[in-house]
Design goal:
The protein has 397 residues and is α+β, with helices and mostly antiparallel strands. It has 3 domains: 189 residues, Rossmann fold, CATH 3.40.50; 96 residues, Elongation Factor Tu (Ef-tu), domain 3 (Beta Barrel), CATH 2.40.30.10; 83 residues, Translation factors (Elongation Factor Tu (Ef-tu), domain 3, Beta Barrel), CATH 2.40.30.10. The protein has 7 helices and 23 strands. β20 and β21 form a beta hairpin.
Length: 397
């Protein structure tokens, strides 16, 4: 029986809407992540998409063509050496779904920034997604200059220069790989760049377990009989420690915003059941929670951890604000007392009202409680007309 292997790292696919993030994911993993009915109808990603891929390297072939996602080298026919298994997190690029992207950033260890060669660089969401990486502390990125099949050489070269300038302005030094995802062009170069620039996270199994919940769902089939019904499932990624099947953990904010003990009935990854999970890759935990409480991502934003290690949820946050003044010039980004803002902490998103601004600290009353830790960075979005714009990050006092 083949051993079920957990992915080593989560790599985000980020960038402006319709620049080809989902197509790049498909070219690398073989999976089309837009499976929600509304996504298929509108042709954009709405929820976070997930797909796994295993990278291989041919020991006989030289250069980028030695990197692939097949066990057998298509060039020489020799069995390739396995490098590692990766989980891709496909984040939506549409402006109205920025909070979903921020939730995804909390799960990422590195990212592929997808920029279309047939559009001016940078586009609005390209900027915001790169700012989101800064907040999350993600420094390791690779750029896919996608859709090069739609432009001539002169346009592609100028676009490449614009990307270089844009990255420099944001303080990123990253390789830029020209790609045409629909044709699978230069996927070997992209894999090579990922292997060289996005390492797997270092795991410390001695730290107390902590996991961000990015999805929650009811896994029961319609019409299931009472004796067949099982508890709800929580999906996300472990950020430290390890989780074992059968152990008791804690959920915060929990049910009715009270810390809740849960039992790990079963652990699953894309390939099937596992007995123990560590940081890297995406996992789901089957629990004994009423599935009516976990359906439709209702428990997204919770944190799972070792009992008595998680902080209580709070309805009031004080934080020091750091504005993205240099990166945003088209709106007034300064916050005001009485203003309503959106806060994204980990995989949690909540609306808050600014009740005080004193001594460089902003105090926010939250509509929905969140679980945060001292010095944690929180993304701050402000209303700009009919949309929300990422304008700053706060550091929790």
């Amino acid at each position: 029986m083949q051993k079920i292997e957990q992915a080593e790292a989560n790599i985000g696919l980020i960038g402006h809407v319709d620049h080809g993030k989902t197509s790049i994911t498909k070219a690398l993993s073989g999976k089309w992540t837009d499976t929600h009915s509304e996504e298929l109808k509108r042709g954009i990603s709405i929820r976070l998409g997930y797909a796994d891929a295993v990278f291989y390297k041919c020991t006989k072939c030289k250069g980028a063509e030695a990197f692939m996602t097949e066990e057998t080298c298509p060039s020489c026919g020799k069995k390739a050496k396995k490098l590692r298994k990766i989980s891709f997190v496909d984040a939506p690029g549409h402006e109205t779904l920025m909070t979903t992207m921020l939730s995804g950033a909390a799960l990422m260890h590195g990212a592929i920034l997808v920029i279309a060669a047939n559009e001016k660089c940078p586009q609005p969401r390209t900027k915001e997604h790169l700012m989101a990486l800064k907040i999350s502390g993600i420094k390791n990125i690779v750029v896919a200059q996608n859709k090069i099949d739609l432009v001539d050489k002169k346009t592609a070269v100028q676009n490449h220069k614009d990307i270089e300038k844009f990255l420099k302005e944001f303080g990123f030094d990253a390789p830029i790989i020209p790609t045409a995802a629909h044709f699978g062009t230069n996927m070997d170069l992209l894999i090579e760049a990922i292997e060289k620039n996005i390492p797997s996270p270092k795991v410390d199994p001695k730290k107390p377990a902590k996991m961000y919940v990015a999805r929650s769902f009811d896994i029961n089939k319609p019409g299931a009989r009472p004796k067949e019904i099982v508890g709800g499932a929580l999906g996300g990624t472990i950020v430290q420690g390890k989780i074992k099947e059968g152990e008791e953990l804690e959920l915060s904010p929990g049910i009715n915003n009270k810390k809740t003990k849960i039992k790990v009935v079963e652990l699953n990854i894309a390939g099937g059941k596992i007995k123990e999970a560590v940081p890297g890759g995406l996992i789901s935990i089957k629990t004994l929670i009423d599935p009516n409480l976990t359906k439709n991502d209702q428990m997204k934003g919770n944190i799972i951890g070792k009992i008595d290690t998680l902080p209580e949820a709070v309805s009031n946050i004080k934080m020091k604000i750091n504005y993205f003044k240099r990166e945003i010039a088209d709106i007034n980004i300064e916050l005001k007392q009485g203003e309503t803002i959106v806060l994204s902490a980990g995989t949690s998103t909540t609306i808050g009202n600014i009740v005080s601004m004193k001594k460089g600290l902003v105090e926010v009353e939250l509509k929905v409680p969140v679980t945060v830790e001292k010095n944690q960075k929180i993304a701050v979005s402000k209303r700009d007309g009919t949309r929300w714009r990422l304008i700053a990050y706060g550091e929790v006092e």
